[in-house]
Structure prediction request, 188 residues.
Amino acid sequence: MPQLKPFRDYDEHDVINLFTLKDQSDVNKGTFVKLTSGQGWVSTDEVFGDTQSAVGSTSYAARAVSNRYIVQAGLDIASSGQAPIGMTLYDLKETDENGEKLVFNPRKAAEMQAAISGQAVPVATRGVFLYSGATLASLAFDAGSVLFADDNGELHTVEASRKKVGVALGAKDSNNYVLIRIDCDPTQ
Prediction:
């Protein structure tokens, strides 16, 4: 699973805040995402709708509808061969570390840098980040190595029909973090 450290250098103009992760419940920041087919952003989309998950108790979730402000335009986790639009800057979470629902505590969600299902997830299209992921941690590479989007939205150093998303600016440290520069171009 990908992870981002707070060390980041990006321009807010390179962040898209118009999409939500569809049909996902627990996604870490640093995950590469793509546009959901047929669910792009449209100016006439309603911002109020039914959520996919129950806000209250799960015992009556099948009989209750939870209306709240949501984003209609969708993202999916990018896989090999798919052109990612960018990398998530927030986690997608429903509960905190104590199992409490974040929808009832938006301040806690903001402190955790977490979006709740239906909310917009900030996606960086360019920038410099301190990144770690299970796939990248198992590979040997050096500064200047080209990075590609792999399955599960992680980074890889082998092309194998994957889409280029950035470059390593150094080698891994002792904690398997590497400084990366991303520049996602979905037209590649």
